[in-house]
Design a protein that fits this description.
With 119 residues, the chain is an all-beta fold. It has no helices and eleven strands. The strands form two sheets. Strands 2, 4, 5, 6, 9, 10 and 11 form a seven-stranded mixed sheet that branches. A four-stranded antiparallel sheet has the order 1-3-8-7, with no helix packed on it.
Length: 119
């Protein structure tokens, strides 16, 4: 069955770094566009980074541009999110998701991993 399993979340001080991973199984990972989303308490879910199946020109939300880097290893069926210079407002549950390259709706979602940034 399809599974997306995020890991790497935790508690970090402002200015620090974390690297999230998303292990995929049960579908053809290498042929899917992958995205990272986050949802903070009381806020709507926000797409923060997306990368195509061929890793062409990743896109980022303005809120993380220049601080976060999305990458993928198709041989390992794993998606990554390197988060640097973390801010208090980055505190959220982070999710990875998969969609077909030519569709806009994400069809597979992980359970999420909590990232908490403290002052």
């Amino acid at each position: 069955q399809v599974q997306l399993a995020e890991s790497g979340g935790g508690l970090v001080q402002a200015g620090g770094s974390l690297r999230l991973s998303c292990a995929a199984s049960g579908f053809n990972f290498s042929r899917r566009t992958m995205g990272w989303f986050r949802q903070a308490p009381g806020k709507e879910r926000e797409m923060i980074a997306v990368i195509s199946s061929g890793s062409l020109t990743p896109n980022y939300a303005d809120s993380v541009q220049g601080r976060f880097t999305i990458s993928r290893d198709n041989a390992k069926n794993t998606l990554y999110l390197q988060m640097n210079r973390l801010k208090l407002e980055d505190t959220a549950v982070y999710y990875c998701a998969a969609r077909h390259n030519f569709k806009t709706e994400y069809e597979y979602w992980g359970q999420g991993t909590q990232v908490t940034v403290s002052s």
